[in-house]
Amino acid sequence: MIQNHSEVHANAITLILQVSKSVGPMFDKLQMDYCFYLVLILMNLMHVIIVIINRRDATSKESSPFINSSTSDVEKCQQYDGKNMALFEEEMDTSPMVSSLLSSLANYSNLTQGSKEHEEAENNEEARKKTVQAPRMGTIMGVYLPCMQNILGVILFLRMTWLVGIGGVLGTFTIVFMCCSTTMLTAISMSAIATNGVVPAGGSYYMISRSLGPEFGGAVGICFYLGTTFAGAMYILGCIEILLIYIVPAAAIFKMEGLEGAEAEAALLNNMRVYGTIVLSFMALVVFVGVKYVNKLALVFLACVILSILAVYAGVIKTSFDPPDFPVCVLGNRTLASKGFDICAKTIERGNATLTTKLWRAFCDSEFLNATCDEYFTSNNVSQIQGIPGITSGILAENLFSTFMEKNSILEKRGVPAVLDPEATVTNTNRYVMADITSFFTLLVGIYFPSVTGIMAGSNRSGDLQDAQKSIPIGTILAITTTSIIYMSSVILFGACVDGVVLRDKFGEGVDGNLVIGTLAWPSPWVIVFGSFFSTCGAGLQSLTGAPRLLQAIARDGIIPFLRVFGHGKANGEPTWALLLTACICESGILIASLDAVAPILSMFFLMCYMFVNLACALQTLLRTPNWRPRFKFYHWALSLLGMSLCLTLMFLCSWYYAIVAMVIASCIYKYIEFCGAEKEWGDGIRGISLSAARYALMRLEEGPPHTKNWRPQILVLMSLDAEQNVEQPRLLSLTSQLKAGKGLTIVGACVEGTYLNNQPQAKLMEVEKVKGFSQVVISSNLRDATSHLIQAGGLGGLRHNTVLVSYPKNWKQAEEHHRCRNFIEVVRETTAARLALLVPKNISAYPSNGERFTEGHIDVWWIVHDGGMLMLLPFLLRQHKVWRKCKIRIFTVAQMDDNSIQMKKDLMTFLYHLRFDAEVEVVEMHESDISAYTYEKTLMMEQRSQILKEMHLTKNEREREVQLIQGKNATPTPTSPTSPTSPTPAAMSPGEEVQMTWTDDTEKPNNPSYKETSHSQKKSLQYGVSFRNQSNVRRMHHAQKLNEVIVKKSQEAKLVLLNMPGPPKNRTGEENYMEFLEVLTEGLNRVLLVRGGGREVITIYS
């Protein structure tokens, strides 16, 4: 065994010093420097040698899983001496001791992708050289407070009062309860998944992808990423809205004074776009420079949120005994915008004079009392109502029900009489508080739902938690419970304290431009204004921090190839490219410029993510996978399905067209990952569903054989491999894929000669032509047994092959290829006995690849005997493929002398019509003719060659027996008996053999129709001086030659010829003759597909 590195270094230095001392005075200072460098080089070289040898040893140790496969027995005995592990010391490399396993699990450290490590890397120079373990967080700091910060945000401060005013207390409470129930059910499912083992960094994406597989995980991960990115846009738009409307209205670049309707709306949106882009650029720069600033400000932003909420509750309590003074000016029942006047009155009395106010001048053409004024202004009085009457005022009854409004409709006070001419047009609309959008119930759902998102903030920090399995369920559910109480209580308290016209005033135009929720706060509205401003800034920064890391986690998984570039970043791991993409997508949300329009978009993506979290939990629970053992026990599959149903319902309630778009995006990503993504095996639930569905389907298929209408070729492809286990005939796979229009089963099998322990099946059979199916490699001591085992044992249950595809043996006449010829004939015999269809393509190298196209030509079918319809079905399947699509089908059949060829053609055309096949039909008449001299010569050569091959394989004793047998034959000649001595009698044959074997020696029977022809051929053979052992060979050779002449004449130019394949001989003495007959039958044809039916009908004329 090689010594450790320090010992090697010491030995090397000692060796060099000894050499230097022996040489002594010959070394001066310069030479000693060179010697020192030589020592360093030698040390490094030994390092490399040690690493290589250790790796080789490790490889050799792992290469064999059996006992006594290693050579270091003495060292292992010393290593495990005294540990009572003598029986298992040989397997310690693959099966470690339990104590070692438990030690490695106890010392498990999670490599996180959170922001803590990036902050440590920026603050400490040494962090780049060694890993810094960030301090772990508990339930409150790691889960509860981050979830609170993400859930409570912009919607609560900017839109909650408006939602209560439009939807009413009952309607809004219903929305809040439904959304909070959805997130609570999702949190329960998420807690079950999060506690089912260690959750590394990646949070929700990791949980979904490992539970539902890479396809669903990638699709939902992208949706969650887009939702987080658009959430950043929504927070930034909320920040700009607070800035330009409530804090610094004068900072607007596009001035809105004096503008009405669409012009004022366009100016506001342009301001949002300009300032939103500026703020986004600044936030992206902050995130790029350093996440540590975001982390340090997170607690400050959270404190602003909590302080703002406490100020609202304090203001509600104060209204019970001291309501604030927030008057709202109303003309008739119409709410007036406070920016156009200072006194809520038409005129004022000053001394003895009656003076007009700014309000008068806003509705009249002059400041004099005799001026011409707006008709509605003249007919109605101006009154002042209290905007916040207090919790004890009983205003709750007025705000219980909804008040939906059309766009540009005037905000009206309920219960106040007004004089209105129905036919009069509304003028001076800029003096009133107007509705900026058309409101309806589903719109309110879409706007509100983003306020309950953020429940996964804790699971996203799983890598930073001290005990994620304990903290995630407790912190998340506690945060949802707290925020749900805050939201539900806010709905009731807002409806009980604030007048309806103020609640429906989205931008506070009737209360001097104040934030409506700010008017309720104590001690000052500015607490809410600045608190909400900083909270939206913090939420935007958190989104821009989290979204790039989520994209980086997806990219590093490698399941979406085109996203791999976003897995790279700065040296400390900061996702620079992902941040750039996130900023661009966020900018698209800012260009929309309307918070109310952006909110439903991100609602779709979050709802889809939550839906799949519930689906993952339900699947794992229903499938009862052995690894599903969550520590969190308060879950049930019914709750998960209810949560999934609520998510799907809310998606279509928010916006049905956004829901469809989100589903299309997720579906496209799913299919892209399925076709182009990397194959990952994560033990996901979808695999479990596939397994259960496959088991159920296989059990159903076992109930009986398939009906003829459902029959399709389920092909076993017998491939031959070279020495390097590469496919020798890839065009066989091409033909397989071209036949797969029937969508049946494909098993690509190969046989390898050897022993299983030394030849592990590693052949990659199906990569060349991308054939979809299964591969199977059988290793046996000889190829014949391996092929037989493959035909017998291939497939499972109802998914067994019914067709065998094997290539015609090439160069079968050569002696070294004799074993392949024998193997081929045995395959024909075995498929016949097993009632399997057989397809034998000849000249397979001439067949087209999947990339070729035939623009014209014919597929010729020579229907000689009925095979169950295989010859009809195969050209139909081939024409479904793009290679053969332009080819036309021609069907030839052979008529004998006593057949009516005209009637045969009519019957065949009728049959094809009922089969719904389009094909040309031709009946070929074969006239009886004498056997030619060429046929006798061909038969004689065949038999002589067969005899030579037979003698080459005979042993000495067998040769002596053969000589005696021939002498006995010469003594008692029987020229009319063609049967072989080894031929079994019909009584010795099994009933199955009698039915399945197609060749029978019936020339001895006088009543046989061909007996006369056989006797004639015998006489003719005697004229040539030839004595054949089996006169039937002459007849078969004659028929093969005549049929070949007709086929070549009609189909020589055809792109493909399909032909009935004759059956094999029932005895084994005529195997070489059988191959000769096939060779003569297919001679002169380029592409031939020999077809042999499986003994059952595969096509039907019935529907």
Automatic annotation (TrEMBL):
Residues 730-840, 854-929, 1019-1103 form the SLC12A transporter C-terminal domain. The chain crosses the membrane at residues 34-53, 164-193, 233-254, 274-291, 297-316, 437-457, 477-498, 601-622, 634-659. Keywords: Cell membrane, Chloride, Glycoprotein, Ion transport, Membrane, Phosphoprotein, Potassium, Potassium transport, Symport, Transmembrane, Transmembrane helix, Transport. GO terms for molecular function: potassium:chloride symporter activity. Its main location: membrane. The keyword RNA-binding does not apply. Residues 975-984 have a biased composition (Pro residues). GO terms for cellular component: plasma membrane; synapse. Residues 143-322, 432-716 form the Amino acid permease/ SLC12A domain. It holds the Pfam family SLC12. It is found in: Cell membrane. InterPro entries: AA-permease/SLC12A_dom, KCL_cotranspt, SLC12_C, SLC12A_fam. It catalyses: K(+)(in) + chloride(in) = K(+)(out) + chloride(out). One of its GO terms (biological process) is cell volume homeostasis. It is a multi-pass membrane protein. Residues 959-1022 are annotated as: Disordered. Belongs to the SLC12A transporter family. K/Cl co-transporter subfamily. This is Solute carrier family 12 member 5b. It comes from Cyprinus carpio. The lineage of its organism: Eukaryota, Metazoa, Chordata, Craniata, Vertebrata.
